[in-house]
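Hey, quick one: can you model this chain's 3D structure?
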Amino acid sequence: MSTLAIDIRLSRNDFSLRFDAALQLEGITAVFGPSGAGKTTLLRVVAGLEKGAVGRVALGGDLWQDTDRRVMVPAHARHLGYVFQDGRLLPHLYVEGNLLFAAERSRRQSRSGHAGQGGRGGRGREVGVRAASERSISSVVQALDLKDLLGRKPDTLSGGEIQRVAMGRALLTAPRVMLLDEPLSALDVRRKAEIIPYVERLAGDFGVPVLYVTHNVDEVARLASSMV
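Sure thing. Here's the predicted structure for all 228 residues.
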């Protein structure tokens, strides 16, 4: 179990966010609230994508952001898997190409040591390299039932299929934590029911803790082991 410590504030136009908590990441942690509450913004802060956030973010002993100390570890060095609402697959690549791109990117980063400089990302790099060796493309394809999709382009996939590929791609980056930003919000009831078991496998089969943003109480009840 890892502790994600967040103490940040952010103000932008008529929006402000203040969050201070130490989250014990195990299983699926739901970030729950109404639209506009700042859930996605919080996820982006954790990912290192919100440059206007002020404060501190750390996972275990790895400091990712500390405004006072002028520390800001870039997003690619945090070893996080991010699944967006719309999947954001690379449209010019087949599904197999999307997966291979993620796996190769993870290998390049582990070799170059981008995440391990100055002691800030060292443990993250070690965890990432070890996870990469254990999480082969074939195991991800099997767990997420992607075999029949490998030869297809993203524009031929359904919304549910896109999200399954996006989850697989994120897994292949050997993440320490998966960040899922309302991955079911664009799906109809039937597609949601199809995807939920795959979300459960991220934490169950692969042992990767998940931060799961949603405004849907039914998703929280089905998926979450804890909630903020």
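One thing worth noting: The mean pLDDT is 88.
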